[in-house]
Amino acid sequence: MDKEKLKLTSSEIGTLWGEYVNGTAVDMVNKYMLSIIEDKNIKELFSDAIKIFNAQKSQIGAFIENESFPLPIGFNESDLTNNAKRLFTDTFCLHYLHIMTLHGLLGHTTSLSSSVRQDLRDFYDACIRDGMSMYHRTTNLLLEKGMFQRDPYFYPEENPEFITGQQFINSKLGDNRPLAATEIIALSMNIKKKILEKSLIIGFCQVTQSQEGRKFLRKAQQTADKHIQSLTKILKSDNLPVPTSWETEVTNSQSTPFSDKLMLHHIGFLLESSQSYHGAGLASAMRTDLVTAYEKIILKNLMVKKEWFNLMTKNKWLEQPPLAPNRKKIAEDK
User: Fold this and answer.
1) What is 178-314's CATH number?
2) Are 278 and 297 in contact (CB under 8 A)?
3) Is residue 242 scored above 90 in pLDDT?
4) What superkingdom does the record give (predicted)?
5) φ, ψ of residue 37 in degrees (nearest 5)
6) pTM for this model (two decimals)
């Protein structure tokens, strides 16, 4: 049987749908940032990112339409405001592209792992290669400009050691063992992503048009700040450096570059994505205080996501993904 003629599965359609909707949202942000960036090297990266996604978008659309599914609405130039003032500095824009490239790599890898058809696997292979290339380029430029925030250094032990008991997990009168390198991976990544989320929320809160949107964003900002404080406190307790914030990279502009629909969708996407990283942190945690911290963050994120869902559906901003056939309804309508 011709592998190219195999129908796409529900999982394959689902990944394509998600890549299209979330990709078009980020693409609009990239296009706005391209219009305000002054640094030629950063500008070149954004220009290339937009070209890469345009090619991917065409292929995703073809996959979806060839299966007779409707193309998602997603986001387009109608969600942008012409000649909006600068909301973010060039520094923030570069950090944004770097972090969103990491999100893209995770998304492409997940999509590949759900794909069976050869042409779809080839497509995601190409997406991952593009993502890796962009990751290297953003990392190199951040290093070149002295803006890359490297994780803490450890000094090597003389010999390998084994864990000898429950004290590795449980603290004794609040006296925790030092953090393990495997735990710092997730701590650092979660803090950096929360810093991006909080900074974006600050900017969006300044320019959103609706009062209910601003109210939600303020609450989301407070939640993100508490999560950052909770995780950085753990690093500080071991006398380890913490990633710096980017709030000062948001200008005082009140001129909105985006539709409220796009801004709220983007924050929802980051809330959803962060749960994967929080879950990874929880899975790798071997200290009770870390486990407790991640559990609280995950629970609070779910509560904020519920408010986000209610706001999006109230305004009819949340596009519905493809659903399984409702067999009961089909039978009743006969």
Assistant:
1) 1.20.1260.10
2) yes
3) yes
4) Bacteria
5) -70, 135
6) 0.94
pLDDT value at position 174? 63
Domain segments of the chain as ranges = 9-144, 178-314
What is the model's pLDDT at position 332? Answer: 80
Is pLDDT of 1 > 80? no
Written as six digits, the tokens of 172 are 């004794």
**How far is it, in rounded angstroms, from Cα 107 to Cα 113?**
10
Identity of the amino acid at 249: E
Least confident of 73-77, 165-169, 290-294: 165-169
Tell me the HSE value of 83 on the side-chain side, using a 13 A CA sphere. 0
The arithmetic mean of pLDDT across residues 239-258, rounded, is 95
CATH of span 9-144: 1.20.1260.10
Is residue 317 classed as helix, strand or coil in its secondary structure?
coil
User: Are 9-144 and 178-314 the same fold in CATH?
Assistant: yes
| 65/322 Cα distance (integer angstroms) | 13
Structure tokens at 331: 């039978």
Q: Which of 217, 211, 207 has the alpha carbon at shortest distance from 252?
A: 207
Q: Which tokens sit at 118?
A: 């050869």
Return the exposure string of 185-205: e unless at least 16 CB atoms fall within 10 Å of the residue's CB, then b: ebbbbbbbbbbbbbbbbbbbb
